[in-house]
Every structure is written in structure tokens, then in C-alpha cells.
């Protein structure tokens, strides 16, 4: 026996506030699955789990790169053909004042690098509520307290401008805008983008425009890029292959930095320092970027047709189900219904998995106004699966709440 006993290794206390409700629920689902039940998964925003496949020409591009031994490290910002394609995409989005572009391991890494490069202790960053939980997880890691602004359900989940105005402090450095939005599926109006740009100008904020779903506008109206309406304002636009190009497992994202050069350049030096420190994003997968952005976009026709049909089915169910009401999503593949129940939505969701084996994510996992309850539906599954899941949720609501 060794003389000294090994003691417990504890995680850093700053991780206490790191939550990722979407994946945390998986533990409960595992229990249910072990009992032999089939889970109906309406919880994970991964198209490839359902009937969506990565376009073949992207796979060919990556395969070719691997065969050509592009398996070493790449330049830290990304390979040239990818950077050129992203600049081309920025131009198509109407972003004129591009100062830099860089490739990352998914938008997740863009978020991590961009927030880390910006924030000092005591600073704050405006993030939406409800929110995609990665932002608050990264802020927790940086030991930055949350400063959230509400999305307004009564206004189709548009950002609540009055709330944003109230929340800006002398230490507010920037604002995150997720458009199209996860978890609500809302899409910002041009007028809203102009108002936010004006606030950013007045208070010297950088805007992080998470536009990872910008090609998934369900009803075919145009997506307006934040950076296109605010060419002078420092903006980092986030994009990637995970959603628009159905390849989340490849972990490819990017940032497009725009705005007045003198304002944004010092910050970009910080971003590039971090990009160099982590060497590079996945190398062979970067060869899919030019193939995706400059190649055929046919897959989007089929994707949007499926999303439209599944969104409409979802909305019909919401309209006819007591206790449930929902703002119709216009982009991405999420719906965020409010549910009128006498207990927390975390209990609702947990019991729904245990009793009916349907997985959705509780609103409290994304944030919501006090006194409200919501749940997030991913409407990627086919119509048959969605119909079965909605039938089960309807039964559950009736049996549990009358
Ligand atoms: C709004 C939003 N941003 C970023 C991400 C992360 O994307 P990636 O797979 O590129 O890391 C997601 C994933 O669901 C998302 O919904």
C-alpha cells in the first residue's frame, strides 16, 4: 500500500454555473432507454440524426483533401480557399466592410474565442433571454456575470429594445444577437437590426451576430444580416456548416469581422492571438467550405420543404392543444411554445420523458420571464414521429393537469 492516500480531485468552482440543459437531459433519457423504451427525440438540433444528409459534393471535397494528405495542421485562421469563399459569402450577405475572416472548430469555438478575446473581469455582455446556452456557459467559464435582455414573446420574440436600453451599463462591451433564433425560431426585422445597431454605436458595443441558421428561413423571405445594415459598427458574424450544410459533426464554423477598421483592429489582434494558440480548426473538413458556399445549393430546397411541412404540423398541434400556445417560427428548426401548467417546466419535461418517452427541453434551460413556462421543440423529425410525439404530449398534459 502507498503511504499517502489519493484524495478527491474537484472541478473548478467557476463551473458551478455551467449548464447545458439540452445534453443534461440525456442522463434521464438513458435511464428510460435502459428500461427498454424507445425515446422520441425532439430535443437535439442535429439534422443528421433525422432524414437529412450532408450534400455529397461536400463529402467528396473532404475525402479528396484527406486523400491528398491535407491531414496536417492548417494555417491558424484557415486555408485560403475557405477564407476566400467566406469573403465571397460575406459579399452575398451584403457585408461590405470586412476586416478579417477566420475558421474555427464549429461556431462553438468562434463564440469561445470571441468572448474570451473581449471581456475583462467586471465587464458584461448582453445576451438574449431565452438564449442558446453556450453563451452563458462560456461567460461562466470567464467568470463574467450574466446580463440578459428579454426577447418579447408578445412581439413575435423580437428583442425587447426597452429592456436592452435598461441593461446597458458603463461596463457593457457588446451584445449577442441570435438571428434566426434558437430556441424561438424568430427572425429579426430590418427595423430591429437598425435599432440595435444604433444602440451599439451610441454605447460603443461590439455586436456578435450569430447567423448560423441564415439559410434556413422557412417561408423564403430574405434574411437580413446585421453587419449589412451596420457597416460602420464592429460586428463579428458567426456562420458554419453545422446547420445550413447539414454537417454538425465536422465541427466547422467561422467568423466574419466587419466595421470601421480603426475601431475593430485592436480587438482582432486579440482574436488572432487565440486562434494561433489553438493551432487550427479541423483541416480536411475546411475543404468543404468553398464547396458548400460556392457550390450547388439544391439541398436547401428539400430541407426547407421538410421544415415548412413539419413547422406547419407543429403549429396545428399547438393551436388545437389546450394549455399550449406558440409564436410561429420563421427560421431554423425550433418552436418554443408556452405551456400553462401549475408546476415548473423542468418537472414537466422530466416527467414527460419518464412517462411518455418524449424528449423536449424545458424553457428554464434557456431562460424565460419569471412566472412563465415553455418547452423547446426541435421539429426536425419526420411527420410520423412528430405526430406520435405530439399525441403523447397531448395525452400527458390531459392526464397530469386535466
Ligand atoms: C445559435 C447557435 N449558435 C451556435 C451553435 C453551435 O454550432 P456549431 O455546431 O457550429 O458549434 C448552435 C448549435 O446548436 C446554435 O444553435
What's this entry about, in short?
With 402 residues, the chain is an alpha/beta fold. It contains 14 helices and 15 strands.
What does this protein look like?
The chain is α/β, with parallel strands linked by helices and about 400 residues long. It folds into 2 domains: about 140 residues, Aspartate Aminotransferase, domain 1 (Alpha-Beta Complex); about 240 residues, Aspartate Aminotransferase, domain 2 (3-Layer(aba) Sandwich). About 40% of the residues lie in helices and about 15% in strands. The chain is built from 14 helices and 15 strands. The strands form 4 sheets. Strands 2-9-8-7-6-3-4-5 form an 8-stranded mixed beta sheet, sandwiched between helices. The protein has a 3-stranded antiparallel beta sheet with strand order 11-15-14. The protein has a two-stranded parallel ribbon with strand order 1-13. A hairpin with a 5-residue loop joins strand 4 and strand 5. It is globular and about 60 Å long. The mean pLDDT is about 95. Pyridoxal-5'-phosphate binds next to helix 5.
